[in-house]
Amino acid sequence: MTTTSRPETHPSTHRMAQVSEDAALPTHIDVAGLGEVLLGRWPEARKAARERALDPRLHSDHNLTFEDQRERTFEQVKILRDAGTALVGMPEYLGGSNSPGANVSAFEELVLADPSLQIKSGVQWGLFGSAVLNLGSEEHHLQWLPDILNLTTPGVFAMTEIGHGSDVASIGTTATYLPETDEFEIHTPFKAAWKDYLGNAAVHGRAAVVFAQLIVKGTNHGVHCLYVPLRNDNGEFLPGVGGEDDGRKGGLNGVDNGRLHFTHVRVPRFNLLNKYGAVDENGDYSSPIASPGRRFFTMIGTLVQGRVSLDGAATLANQMALTIAVRYAEQRRQFNTDSDIREQTLLDYQQHQRRLIPRIAETYAMIFAHQQLLDKFQEVFSGEDDSDGNRQDLETLAAAFKSMSTWSALATLQETREACGGAGFMAKNRIPQLRADLDIYATFEGDNTVLLQLVAKRLLTDYSDEFKNADVGVMARYVADRATEAGFNRSGLRKLTQAFTDTGDARRSVNALRDPEAQRALLMDRVETIIEDVADEMRAVARKSKKEQAEVFNNNQHRLIQAARSHAQLLQWEAFTEGLEKIQDPGTKRVLTWLRDLFGLHLLEENLGWYLAYGRLSMRRGRALQSYVNRLISRLRPYSLELVDSFGLSAELLRAEIAGTVEEERQQEADEYFRRLRASGDAPAKEAKPARDPKAETRGHHA
Q1: Exposed, middle or buried: residue 232 (CB in 10 Å: 0-12, 13-18, 19+)?
Q2: Which residues are known catalytic residues?
Q3: In terms of CB atoms within 10 Å, which end of the chain has fewer, N or C?
Q4: Cα radius of gyration rounded to whole Å, the chain
C-alpha cells in the first residue's frame, strides 16, 4: 500500500481524539492509490494534459486587453494543434486514434491552464469539427476536416439565435434549395434570427456550420446543418455575410464571441451535411429517419460532446477551488479559543468544516458520475454500442450531470472565495477569475433549467411507458397502492410509527439512515413521488385541449425540475457507491464510505422539509439526521487535506499563492516573534478588566 504523510505545514492528526464511534480509525488515506482511481479510464490522457498545462505559454494573462487576450488564446490553440491533441478522437483514416473518451478527458484538463483556451479549442474541434464529423459524410470529412484540424480553417458553430436560444427547433434562419443553380440559399429574414454568442465569430472564424430550416420544393424538413464560408484570407466578410463583435464579456475574454447574419448567401448542394438528411441532384429530399422530430433530436444528440466536457471541466474547477481553500484553511489561524498563545486553524471550526467538507463529498460524487458519463460517451461515439437507447441514455445523463456540476462549480467557487476571506478575492489566487470564466458554463451548451426539463420529460416518458401495455389488473393494483400510499403518508401514520420506534435511543434513528439502502430508497422516493404526482395530473387532462394540457404542465414545471435535480443527485449517489468498489485500500475505502454517506445524508438534510411534509421522516429522525451529519463532518475533518490532495493538483497546476506554504510561513514568523517577546520579559501587560460594580448593574437593569 502506498501512503503519504501530511506535510508538517498542514497538521490535522490532533483531531483524531474527537471521534468516538470508530476507535480503529485509519491513520492515512492512500493518496496515490486514490488519485489513480480518480483519474478514471484514461489516466495517461489526463496526465499528459496536466503536463501540458504546466507550460506558461498556455496560462491565462488577465492583465492584457481583451483584444490581446483573444490573440494570445488563438496562439495557444496553435500550440495544442502542434501537440496533435485534436487527433485523438478522430477516425483512423484521418490519422486519429478513434478514442472519444480519451479525447474529452484530455480536453477537460485544459481548464487548469486557461478556461478560454478550453472553450476556444472546444469551439474549433469539439463543435465546428465535430459537426462536420458527426453530421457529414466521409466526402465531407476528407474535404474539410484536415484544414479544421490543422487550424487552416478556424471555424464557428452557428446554432444559437437571438430569438431562440434554447428552442433550436424554432430557429428562423432558412436554407432554401434552388434547383436552377443546384445551391442552397442561406438567409436570416429578421434580426431575431441572427446567430449570436458564437465563439470565433468576431475575429478568427473563416467558415461556419450553420443550422437552418431546410426548405426543399416548398416543404420545411426542419433544422439541418450546412458548411458556409464566412471570410476571405484577409479576414473580410464574404458577400452577403455580416456580423458584429459581442465585445468584452463577464469572463472567457480570450474567446472572440460575435454575431452573424446572412443575406441570400449561396452555397453548393454538397455543403449540406447530409448524414441524416440529403437532397439529390433531382432536388428530392430523403432521410434515413422518417420522423422529423426524431431526426432533429438525433442530429442534435450527435453534438452531446460539449455537455459531457463541460461536466468534466466544472468537476475539475471544484477540485481546484477546494484544494486551494482546504490547504489555506489548514494553515490560516484566527481567534484564540483553547489557547492563550496560539490561534485556531480555520478548518477546526465547525462552520468552516460545514462550508467545505460537504462540497468535497459532492465533488467526489461528481467525479464518479462523470466517469460513468464518459464511459457511455465512449460506447456511443466509438461505435461500441451506438444504439438508439444508449444515445438517449447518454443525452439524458449529459443533460443531468452538466446542469448539476456547472451549478455546483459556481456555488463552490463562491463558497471557497468567501472561505478564503480577502485572500480569496485576489486574482493571484485563481478563484475570482475561475468564478467569472465558469459563469457562462451554466447557460451554454444548453441552459441548465431547460436541460433539467428535458430530464424531467424523460422521467415522465419512462414512467408512462411502464403502464403503456398494462392490463386492467395491473392498473387497479397501482391505483390501490397509490391510494394507500397517499393515505398512509398524509395521515401521518408513517410519522407516528417512526416516532414510536425511534424513542429511547437516538442512535437507532441514525443507524437506519447510515444504511446505504435506506439512503437510496429515500433519494429515489422523492423522485418517484414527484413524478407520480405530476403524471397523475397530466393523465387527468390527457384527452383535453392542448391549451389545458400545457397549463397543467406549466403549473407543475417547478416540481418537475425538482424531480430532475433529485434524479441527477440520485444518479451521482449511485455512481459514488459503485465507485467505492474500485478502492482496494481498506482505510481509504472506509473514509470514502463516510464521504458517500455524507453526500447522501446532506442531500436528505437539504430537502428535510419535503421528507417531513410527506411523512418520509419523523421529527425525531430529522433531528437525528442533522446531528449525525455534523458528526460525519467532524469525523472526516482529519482527512480533508488528504481527500483534496488525492485530486492530484500540484501547486504548479493551481498557480494560487495561498495553496502553497506562504500562510504557514507567515504564521510561523508571527509565532516566533511572540515566543521571543514572551521569553524576553518585555511583552506588554494586558489591560486589566475593570472591577465589577453590582450596584451599577442593578441601576442599569432598573433603567
Answers
A1: exposed
A2: 445
A3: C
A4: 29
